[in-house]
Amino acid sequence: MSSETATDVLDITGWTCPAPLRDQPRIVMGHGGGGTLSAELVQHVFAPAYGGKALAQLGDAAALTLGGARLAFSTDSFVVRPLFFPGGSIGDLAVNGTVNDLAMSGARAAYLSCGFILEEGVETRTVSRVAEALGAAARAAGVEVATGDTKVVEAGHGDGVYINTAGIGLIPDGVDLRPQRVVPGDVVIVSGTIGVHGIAIMSVREGLEFGVEIESDCAALGSLVEAMLAVTPDLHVLRDPTRGGLAASLNEIASASGTGVVLTERALPVPAAVAGACAMLGLDPMYVANEGKLVAFVPREHADAVLEAMRAHPLGRESRIIGEAVAEHPGMVVARTALGGTRVVDMPLGEQLPRIC
Amino acid sequence: MKYIEEFQDPALARRLLDEIHATVTRPWALMEVCGGQTHSIIRHGIDQLLPEQVELIHGPGCPVCVTPLEVIDKALEIASRPGVIFCSFGDMLRVPGTDRDLFRVRSEGGDVRVVYSPLDALRVAQQNPDREVVFFGIGFETTAPPNAMTVHQARRLGIRNFSLLVSHVRVPPAIEAIMQSPSCRVQGFLAAGHVCTVMGMEEYPHLAEQYKVPIVVTGFEPLDILEGVRRTVAQLERGEHTVDNAYPRAVQAEGNPAARAMLEDVFEVTDRAWRGIGVIPGSGWRLSAKYRDYDAELRFSVTDINTCEPAECRSGEVLQGLLKPFQCEAFGTLCTPRTPLGATMVSSEGACAAYYLYRRLGTTPAPATPREATGVV
Amino acid sequence: MCLAVPGRVLEIQERDGTRMATVDFGGVVKEVCLEYLPDLCVGDYAIVHVGFALQRLDEESARQTLELFAELGMLQEEFGDPWETAAIEEAAK
Question: Which family does it belong to (chain C) (predicted)?
């Protein structure tokens, strides 16, 4: 059944990537993992089909000029399972995910759209709980849901509730956040502990269940970004390291900026429970998702002041300098290990899975 | 975590490294057998901190990578069948068979599930009595007892819709095969600590004696690996070749008798092919006659799938340290981490995959400041 | 090959005629099968692989090993250890 559709539909001539998608005639889970497979899907399928100048930025949000205003515009879809997890729900994620994407371009989210895709048979009470969580998160983030849509799919065609949100916000004057502005010497700061959201979700996932005393770090980062920009508008780039974790975000920045990144591994803030779960499942905290953290590349002369401002903010109390941008090994992320060795922190291919060896 | 963090201490690592630097006078080639140790070595950059004379050859001890193509193809065939729930450890999902992997089977409608423990697969079978649940039983002596227990429990509880696709491998025959190779360069082994938690150390003295190689049972944290290297090098420098235990907190001489008894009951020794290496006599386990009913190969009649390994792949030579990855013609062209031909490219810690990644750095990673500071070369 | 981690036994119970334990891995708690280590007690540490306790962790032996490491190269101590200094500087950055 796969043979007719496999090679005929996709025209692979003219593809430039040395590892084309031809070995993946169907979508696999990894295409949504935020790693190499996701990037290839965009590069080879979406961008050629409808890509323009704005899409080519490939940032968390697009920066657009419209009627003289500089707008940040972003969309994100949420398919998390289970719908409710320690520390949050799909409703919180749907708001915070898009608000954070906008925040990474320096914009404070003004309006959101919200599309619900519901599965036939899902309890109305469940939808109501999700909606209430979404409303509370929007109020907390200071953003208004301005438009929405609802569709229902047949039973068995969805996981109860899927949500898509899109958002717009204004980018303040003098703010220009993109990886191309990163230069060697920039200091890399992370706003707190890593891996918390991914482990919180995994702990309640079917077949893996484990007890852990952590909750998702899901939070809206708009006010933290404002506090940072108040120190200087001259930050170089911000990312929220969601799927693919810190490793994916840093690799994207390294690759788009043409600089190398060197991390000091022992500076990475990893909570004990995340370290424990990762040891047990054979995961690397750097590849585990976050939902309320950001990573910033800051000019060296502003690093101390920005760090101080971040630590003064409730969402940035555990901010730390974890590394720097370097001229060597452009496009690559390298970690200095606690023992004094080095290792390459590669772009994840797809999703991370528990391993036994 | 207790008993992990203490064994990652940089200051103690430095003491071990100093000791190794002070001991070594000549070049030595050691093989760490286990993929978990290779992972730890790369993860912590240990190979860059050892004296230049100490070469670590990454051995064939990654169960995921050495699982033969033929067994992967059988797994893919079974997982594609309607009515089957195919359960596996996460690492097996992206190991390529001849033309696809388990992720792809899932995208084509197969019910492939990742489990943490084989007992979870048994639970899936209990919850889905109208479906056939198959567990992909791969691994070395460490993983074999959990899988054996699962089959034993299935039989005890009368769970008939459960079966095991078995591809278990054993370490000692692999060490023997490596040593028998006429061009073998390995002079000492870091034996796999977690294998020995189960099997103990009884299988090694005759190997050490016959091939005149030190075999040091070694753990997985950085200090454990350095201690394994230190003890192996010390033996080599003294001209000794005995079995030593550098992981005494987890390994007893007799191993785990209950687990070994279960292995005896559930499995029997068989010849087994290793991906990229070939058949090693007596190097595997299959279900014993008593448990044959639980053999997925028989239940799903896939015994006639016979896949040959690609001829271009020379990972067997790479595994023995005879060939550097870039000296292989397929390296970086036919064979990449996305389209691996052999074991050493399949695993991210495999020698070929590591070379593929690190060659982008342009050089081997720079020596760390601390080494410069002490002036040790 | 085999990712196995040390955990501490919190609680022991029978399930379906199988000896199981709740084991703590640095704040993460998971059900573990004790069939291969029937004598394991609450408070003991065990090496756990894919949900099975495979060997008791000998805490006394672990302590001795660390002591042995600490005694290595004691002579260099009085001259100061440039590695440690470098590591401390690195951490302070």
Answer: Belongs to the HupF/HypC family.
Give, as one character, the DSSP assignment of residue A186: P
- At B98 the three-state DSSP class reads coil
Eight-class DSSP state of C76:
G
Q: Which domains does chain A have, with CATH numbers?
A: 1-6+15-43 (no CATH), 70-171 (3.30.1330.10), 179-344 (3.90.650.10)
**Which pLDDT belongs to residue B303?**
85
**For the residues A321-334, what does the mean pLDDT come to?**
96
Cβ neighbours of C90 in A, within 8 Å: 264, 266, 336
Does residue B369 surpass a pLDDT of 80?
no
What ipTM is given for this predicted complex? 0.90
Q: Which of residues 15-74 of C touch B (CB under 8 A)?
A: 16-18, 25-26, 30, 33, 35-38, 45, 47, 49-52, 54-55, 57-59, 61-62, 64-66, 69-70, 72-73
Cα separation, A137 vs B80, whole angstroms: 42
Q: What is the pLDDT of residues C38-89, one digit of tens each?
A: 999 999 999 999 999 999 999 999 999 999 999 987 655 555 555 555 555 5
Domain count of the fold of chain C: 1
CATH number at residue C36: 2.30.30.140
Give the residue among B317, B309, B307, B312 at the shortest CA–CA distance from B336.
Answer: B312
Q: Is the pLDDT of residue B225 over 70?
A: yes
Residue A16's pLDDT band (cuts 50, 70, 90): very low
Q: What's the number of CA atoms in the CB half-sphere (13 Å) around residue B289?
A: 0
Residue whose C-alpha is closest to residue A280's, from B272, B263, C46:
C46
Residue from the list C54, C85, C90 with its beta carbon closest to the beta carbon of B145: C54
Question: Residue C20: which domain range?
Answer: 5-92
Interatomic CA distance for residues A116 and A109, integer angstroms: 20
Residue B321 has pLDDT above 80, yes or no: no
User: Given pLDDT bands bounded at 50, 70 and 90, which one contains residue A1?
Assistant: very low
